[in-house]
Every structure is written in C-alpha cells, then in structure tokens.
Amino acid sequence: MGFFSETNQDYLEKKPTKNQINISWKWFVKNYWKKIIALIFLATISTVSFLLLIKNGAEKIYSLLKPELSQESTKYTFYSFGKKPLINFGENWKNYLLFAFFFIAISCFFFLFSIYYRRFFANQVINDLKKKSINKLFKLEEKAAGGKEKESFGIIYNWSKELGSHFVFFFDSFYIFFLTLAFVFYEMKFASNKATIWAGLIYFGLMSLLLLYFNRQIYQKRSKLQQAIEKQTDCENELINNRQLIIKKGLLNDSLKKYTHVLQTTQKKANNEALFNSLYRTIFTHLIRLNKFFLLLIVLIFVPGANDFVVFGLFTRLITPLNYLIKGIRKHSYLSSTRKNLSNFFALPERNDIQKNITINEQVIKIELKEISFTYQENKPVFKKLDLVFEKGKMNYFQAPNGFGKTTIVNMLFGLYRPIGGEIIINEKYKINELNLKKWWNKIAYAESQNLIKTNLSAGQTQLLDLQETLKKEKEIYIFDEANANLDKDNESIFWKKIEALGQKKLVIVMSAKEPVLFKNSQDKKSRGKVNK
Question: Do residues 396 and 509 lie in contact, with contact meaning Cβ atoms separated by under 8 Å?
Fold first, then answer.
C-alpha cells in the first residue's frame, strides 16, 4: 500500500535515490554522537553516584549490625569503591551528615536530569525522523509515492516513534548495565567470602530467567490479545455495516451470539495478559524491595565483611537495566524490519527540483504542450500526443470530464509529473524539464476545488475566500483547477468577470470538469479550440 507496495519496491530496486539514508546504529552514532556523549556523561554520573550511595549505605548498615567486625564503627567515613575511604570525618557526625545530604542532593539531581535527558534525546530523534520523512514526502517522484500517502505516512510515524525510543533507551540501558557490571567485578576483588559471590550470581541468574520467562509470556499474550482485538473489530464493523441486511435476513440472534462469543474470547485473552503483567510487575517490585531484608539476614548470618554485602547489593542493582535490555533484544527482529522499511522509504527516488538550474528572468507569455504523452501504468495512457497552447492576454479555458487528465496537465505544468513523450516549452525557448522548479513555482498562483483554509464556513464561502487570496497574489501565471466548482451563480459570475480582467494582463488557465472536451484560447469564452488527444 502507498510507499510500500510491491510495484514501488521494484521501482526502488531500479532507481534508488542518491541521498539514501540507511537507518542503523551507525547512522544513529554518526548523527547524534554529541548527544550520545552527553547521555553517557549523565548516565555515568548518575549511576556512579547511585552505586556509591548503595555502597556507603551498605557499609553503614553493616557497621551498625556488626560493629565488632567493622573497623570504622566509631568513625563517620564516606567510602569510594573498594576499601578506600573517600573522606574520613572521624567523629564529626555533623560534617558527615552535611556531606551526605549534599551528595544525595547532587545524585538525585543528576539522576532526574539523566531521566529527562534520555526522554529529550529520544524525542529529538523521533522528531528528526518525522521531519526527514515529511521532507522526503515532498521530494518524492510521483510514481515513487504510489498513492495513499496519508495511510502510509501513519505507518512511518509509528516507525519513527518506535525506532527513536529504541535507539536511545536501549543504548542507555546497555551502557548502564555494563557500567554496573564493571563495578560488580571491581568490588568482587575485595569480597572475603566466595559464597557471597556465588549467592549474587545465583540470585542474578534466577532473576534473569524469571525476566526472560515473563517477558516471553507477556509478549505471546499480547500478540494473541491483539489478534483477538482485530477479530473483534472486524466483527463489529460487519455488524454495523450490515445492520439492516442482518435484520431483514433474520440473522440478528445468530449475529449477536457470534459477537458475544468473540467478546468473551477477547476478554479471556485480555485477562490472561493482565494476569501475567500484574504478576510480572508485582513479583519484581516486591522482590527488589525484599532484597534489602534478605541482605540484612545475610549480614547477620553469613557475611564476614562489608564488601561482601556491597557485592550482593550490586548484583541486585543489575536487574533493572537487564530488564530493559531483554525487552530491547526481544524487539530486535521486529525493529530490524522496521529499520529496513524506513531505510527503503528514504531510498525512494526523489524529484530533481533544480534540474539544469535554468531561471526565466522574463515575463511568461506562452506555455506550449507539444505532442505530450503520459501514463501511470504501462499500456494505459492518460493521453497521447496532446497539443495545447496557453498564452498571456487570452482566456485559456480547458474543459473535459473527470478522468481526462486535467489535474495531470496541471501537475506537468508545475513539473511534478514528467511526460513520457513530447515537451513543454515556455516562451518558445525554455523547456520545463530544465528549469529550476523552485523558482518556477514562485511565478505561479494556484487554486482548486479543495483548499487549506480552516473555517466553519460553507464549502462555497471557503472556496470564495481561497479565490480572493489567490487573486491578491502578484504572479505571472494563474491556474484555476475547478476552482469555481462550489460557487453559487452570483459569485461564479463575479469570478468570471475577475478572471477575464486578469487574463488581459496575465497568463490565466482555467480548468473545468464538463462535457464535452473543449479548449478555448481567446477573449471570447464561447469560442472553441481543438484538442489533439
């Protein structure tokens, strides 16, 4: 559909764009390396300060529970990693509390700012992807667009949101996990009892298995729930769209029974998903909280030193970033295809708006279509060898029924479409496929039956406002594509008078959806011209 149709993929293989953007980790690092450094800095400061708080908290708890084994039981010391005191306050508990308060405040600040910056960074990546997508949309060759841009761009919007969040959050979790793991290994050197290390490893292993199990179950439950919701939606649409037919055929009871069964199935799957999600959140929330009590028991019974206590505490700290890593890895296959599809979108052929960069610095007095042929699909031409001449100072009026290709002609005049045969010549010397289109567009004022005005007025009144705004513009060329379609008789009469007056000094083209095919190129709007098609 749209950008992602099979036809479009074939077109992509034949003619990729020169400015292809490959959405990958390499692209992420290359474009956001400064923000990545800032993210690493904040993650390092917040993680290290948090780990130091864990260590010093463990040291104090240990000294309180086992003062006979603590060498610093009577001193107020703030520890660095390992067994090195960072600052020894001796018996001065006031300075110790003041420093601890200051350190906790700084730690909280960096922790909160790190969380904010992570979301800020993700939003920046998401918005950049959206902006690139919109810019790409306006540069696409029309055949590459493939139609249905609105539906297709909705998909691209979701991809941008998922990929932007994934790049930042997965990278952040990955870094924090291995940074914490490095401190775990460092503290293990100072642990006096290997049993503590094994206890931490076993605990970490069990928690990892639980995380993997619950993540897998929740993923499967959500997939089944999504399928059930889609089936329920289809059933609801069928009931709504065929309401009268169901009643007339006497199928109301059967249809309602079927819908009730679908609802029950969906509810059952929703309950299963909610159960596992609740278990997951509850178990891990309480396990992490109960770790403190478990640690106290270990201190009282088994742990011979404070560093053993710290090692086990750091193992418990690894669980949170591990959880994010598992979620990110589980999404890897899905996001890989998302990255590929988004990269393919950015690789679609772009329209060359500069072309040969020729600029028309004189007044446009004549536009000639010479033997123009155009087709959207092979062997199904819109028109063949079409001849038209639009001149300044004359009424260039072209009427044809819907489907003739009037809007296609307008798009070719803008340079948005390229004919497969023939040429469009301006002032008998400039070819439209050689012009700088951006400067060419500045010469044109355009109005059609649709407009961008947002009001609560009727369609006719809104269209009248759009026409008034168009006529106010000081341009060389004025194109009206069924721009009077919604006007009443009085306003249409006024419209024609203004157009006729404008046509005496500007190049004016008016398109109308009427029978038969007719082209008029004079001040007399009743005259007829010949259209070769």
Answer: yes
